[in-house]
Amino acid sequence: xxxxxxxxxxxxxxHGQLDLPESPKGLILVARSxxxxxxxxxxxxxxxxxxxxxxxxxxTAHELQFADATQNVPRLAQRLLxxxxxxxxxxxxxxxxxxxxxxxxTAPAAIRCAAQRxxxxxxxxxxxxxxxxxxxxxxxLLTAPLLMLVEHNDTPVSAAYQRAASHxxxxxxxxxxxxxxxxxxxxxxxFAEYLVA
Length: 197
What we know:
This protein is of the alpha/beta class and 197 residues long. It has 6 helices and 8 strands; from the N terminus they run E-E-E-H-E-H-E-H-E-H-E-H-E-H.
């Protein structure tokens, strides 16, 4: 079953899509500022492994016109919390074990939300992103197991992870990606380990 999701905010509507198989192993929220082509392979891989997928844009079409919109961690975090509320109150999603996949600028917001919703969010994958921008409190309170994917030549993100790592309160693992590496297997393994009972 495929459902289109619309979440209304004071700044406009956020759009997403829920792909719900017959007996899902869990739910993966793919949180992004906007959809990018790289998401398609990830979504297909997770769906093929029996997960329900909610791909959700966290910025409105209007906000995407502003270059700094993706840098607003508090706003992105609040949007993610709104999405988590939607999941918690939706009959199709509320009983599924929940993991979050965040890419780039949505990563620090995802860590903030997972730290605040430590019972709801059971696993987290961040592909890039300056996760130290999540803030010291969120890093220390995070209990959801975190897989951090970093491109081999992305020195700033590697440095951000190293700054954050000593403050991370829960299980965390760093995976360095080789040139052209598509980390689908690592992402699937992480969610299978921590979401599937």
